[in-house]
Amino acid sequence: MKITNAKVFIGGPGKNYVTLKIETDQGVYGLGDATLNNRETLPAAYLRDYLIPNLIGMDPRNSEDIWQFFYRGAYFRRGPIAMAAFGAIDMALWDIKGKLANMPLYQLFGGKSREGALVYAHATGADLEDLMDSISYYVEQGYKAVRVQCGIPGMPTASYAVPEKKGDVRNYITDYAGIRPKVEVWDSDRYMRFMPGALAEIRDRFGPELKILHDVHHRLTPREAAVFARAVEPADLYWLEDPTPADDQDALRLLRQHSTVPVAIGEVFNSVWDCNRLIEQELIDFIRVAVSYAGGITHVKRIVDLAGLHHVRTGFHGAPSHSPICMAAQAHLNAWAPNFGIQEYLVLGTPECDALFPSAHRMENGLFHVSDAPGLGVDFDEREAARYSYTPGSHPVVRLEDGTMWNY
Ligand SMILES: [Mg+2]
């Protein structure tokens, strides 16, 4: 069996999804997601210029050897661009394997460990009352877990993920259009004075059952993070996400000495070498990698198994930049993983998105149910894809009030 062709598409309804389609001499094809948010053309170029010319003629069933060929063969290893490109190839090869076996992927991993995987939604508010309304909306929709982000009084601009006006919702595409980033202003002192009390009020309002998550988005120093983690303990958080910049694997040691709040980290990691110490030294409770830019199913499954040895559960990244192909790959891992925790989930199910990526996966009552279709269980309509093209965009950058650059 041989790979005969592979194609890369960029675009989608209000998104720059990077979709890989690998075709074989037996008519079976596989799909992968190489989307790297706001840097989408780079994994696409890596695929087109270097990886696909080598892929043609390989046996798609040897997904492990193909992964090793590209990873070890690159010489300059890792990095989100390369790992996103490898990840898309790996997803597509697993998709082909599942279709050849006529089984959904979770069966090839070891079958289902659960019916329906817990997901969390994003509630945001320009102020606390606005946020309470947003949380109520998701609770009424049946969500059992909600990430809560709130505008900070006195902050001169809206901060991470928070709308500027009451009742608005951040649109991750139109708000961040154009190659020159918007500037957001940040003040850790104001944030640390306001947010613990706000989280406690949310807990009071919604009672003990709702799982409440909060994302610090890498903004605090290790000492501030330790103080903040202790201050939010009365809110009984499901997790505190990215309290410190993720590239320092020792930064959480101080927090661990002062608080038992569950910590989630890792949405920017792209390999096991970014998180092995965090996992082995049990400095985190949830690992947040994404199947797309952490090297695909083959590599992320290794991270999940290492995490399982150390009581660390999964909480895969599910930002709107992941296409339904990556979300399907994660859904199969979520159905199987003995150490599954939760899945970040933003509603993708617009009619345009469903037309481009038809699938039978479904959300019901705050749980994601993976379909029993062979492989990833998601398709890609090339005629629909022809309607879309690449639109440049950029994440905001963050400065302190005196102009100093800070962590987005
Ligand atoms: Mg996050």
UniProtKB/TrEMBL annotation:
**Molecular-function annotations in GO:** magnesium ion binding; mannonate dehydratase activity
Give yes or no: UniProt keyword Metal-binding.
yes
InterPro entries, per this entry?
D-mannonate_dehydratase-like, DgoD-like, Enolase-like_C_sf, Enolase-like_N, Enolase_C-like, Mandel_Rmase/mucon_lact_enz_CS, Mandelate_racemase_C, Mandelate_racemase_N_dom
Q: In this protein, which residues make up the domain named Mandelate racemase/muconate lactonizing enzyme C-terminal?
A: 128-262
**What Gene3D superfamilies does this protein map onto?**
Enolase-like C-terminal domain, Enolase-like, N-terminal domain
Alphabetically sorted, this entry's keywords are: Magnesium, Metal-binding
What GO biological process terms does the UniProt entry carry, in alphabetical order? amino acid catabolic process; carbohydrate catabolic process
Q: Which family does it belong to?
A: Belongs to the mandelate racemase/muconate lactonizing enzyme family. GalD subfamily.
Q: What is this protein called?
A: Starvation-sensing protein RspA
